[in-house]
Design goal:
Length: 187
Amino acid sequence: METVYDELNIKTQLQAVPSRRGVLLLNAGIVDGDIVRSKSNLSKFDDIIVVEPSLGTVNIVLICRKSETCNRTNLDDKNISIMSSMGDLELLKEFNIQARVILNEDLNHILRMLKKGRVDNVLYPALEIDIHNLRKEFEVVVLRQMTVNTVVHKKHAGLVPELSHAIKAHLPSLTDQLNSNRTDNLH
């Protein structure tokens, strides 16, 4: 995305923040944009504009240790603990999750806890390649698929047509970057 913004002569400073915090900062106008966000979660935020085209598809998955039962009924079982970010919980609100939820906004930490056996079940946003890699060690159930887009604060609405055009021009490489960055986090 830095290339896209550079071509538009827009200086950027990228900073990783937990997804929920990123959306709140963006809606408040404290930050100008977010590189990858699911538009499914943005309807209640009036000051965020979704930039088309979509950068790709992300799955919200339930990941369980191989020794555990792993299916959608895990979400209904009050005796099961599931680690998740607030954003992933919001994306799955139609599931009416009854399991005990342990909130953790650090997605890398969630995976480390699972790999170390500290938790048995997690909710996680995964690309198709992530799912393939995760299935080598864990049971994985896809709960929901959604597209992801770049988003900007409404004060930058005038930039949206140019930004959209630039994203279209670079879409294959942006999608490749999205895929390679995510799989790097799984190792």
